[in-house]
Design a protein that fits this description.
The protein is mainly alpha-helical and about 210 residues long. About 65% of the residues lie in helices and about 5% in strands. Helix 4 packs antiparallel against helix 5. It folds into two domains: about 120 residues, no CATH class; about 35 residues. It is elongated, with a radius of gyration of 21 Å. The chain is built from six helices and three strands; from the N terminus they run H-E-E-E-H-H-H-H-H. It has a three-stranded antiparallel beta sheet. The longest helix has about 35 residues.
C-alpha cells in the first residue's frame, strides 16, 4: 500500500486518519518524533496510530490472499472429500471472521479503545473465534461454510484456530499465553463504561424530574 492512502484494499478508511489527528485536542493522544500515539486501555502501552493501522493493512492483505486461494481449492475438491472440505471450510470461517473484525477495528472512528498492540488484537480475535464457534455449535449462528457436515467443520475449527491465527499474524506461540490479562482488563474497562453510562442516565433523570417540579 502506498504511504498516504490510509485505507484498506476494499476502500475502508482509517477511523482516526492523519488529518483528524492533526486537528484533535484529545488529552489521551500524544505526539513525538515518531508520530501520534496513545497509551492503550488494556495494557497501558504506547501504540503509534500509524503502526497500528499498517499492521491491520498488512494482515488484511494476507487474509485476502489466503481467502482467494481457499476459494480456488474449495472449487476443485470433489464433494466426497468430506474431511478435506471440512478443513478448508474451517480455515475459511476463521479468516472470514478475522477479516470482518479488521474492517470493523480499522474503520472505527468513535472508540479509541480499538487502538491496541498487535498481540492484544490477536487475543481479541482469538476470543471472537471461540465465541463464534460456540454459537455455531449451539445453533445460534448459521454459517454457509459449515455445509452439510457442521460437526467436522467445528472439529477442525477447534483444532486449527490458534495455529491459523498465529500463522497469519506471524506471532510466536507465547503471544496468546497472556490472553487472560487482556481479557480481564477489557472486561474491567467495559464495566467502567457501563457504570459511567448508568451514572449519567441517573443524573439526567434527576435533573429532568427537578425541572418538571420547578
Amino acid at each position: 500500500m502506498v504511504m498516504g492512502e490510509q485505507k484498506l484494499n476494499n476502500g475502508f478508511k482509517r477511523g482516526f486518519p492523519s488529518h483528524w489527528l492533526e486537528r484533535q485536542s484529545e488529552p489521551k493522544i500524544g505526539r513525538d518524533e515518531k508520530g501520534y500515539f496513545i497509551y492503550t486501555v488494556s495494557e497501558n502501552v504506547k501504540v503509534y496510530f500509524e503502526e497500528y493501522y499498517q499492521f491491520l493493512e498488512k494482515i488484511e492483505r494476507r487474509c485476502d490472499s489466503e481467502l482467494l486461494a481457499l476459494e480456488q481449492k474449495l472449487g476443485q475438491i470433489p464433494p466426497n472429500r468430506t474431511e478435506t472440505l471440512a478443513y478448508y471450510r474451517a480455515r475459511k470461517i476463521i479468516l472470514d471472521l478475522l477479516l470482518k473484525n479488521i474492517l470493523s477495528f480499522y474503520s472505527d472512528s468513535a472508540n479509541l479503545g480499538v487502538i491496541m498492540t498487535p498481540w492484544c488484537f490477536g487475543t481479541v480475535i482469538l476470543e471472537k473465534v471461540e465465541i463464534y464457534k460456540d454459537r455455531i455449535a449451539r445453533g445460534e449462528a448459521n454459517d454457509a461454510d459449515t455445509g452439510d457436515f457442521p460437526y467436522y467443520v467445528l472439529r477442525y475449527i477447534d483444532e486449527i484456530y490458534k495455529i491459523t491465527l498465529l500463522e497469519i499474524f506471524e506471532f510466536p506461540e507465547k503471544a496468546f499465553s497472556v490472553r487472560w490479562q487482556y481479557s480481564e482488563l477489557l472486561k474491567r474497562y467495559s464495566q467502567v463504561l457501563s457504570n459511567v453510562t448508568a451514572s449519567l442516565q441517573s443524573i439526567l433523570f434527576l435533573a429532568k424530574n427537578q425541572n418538571q417540579e420547578s
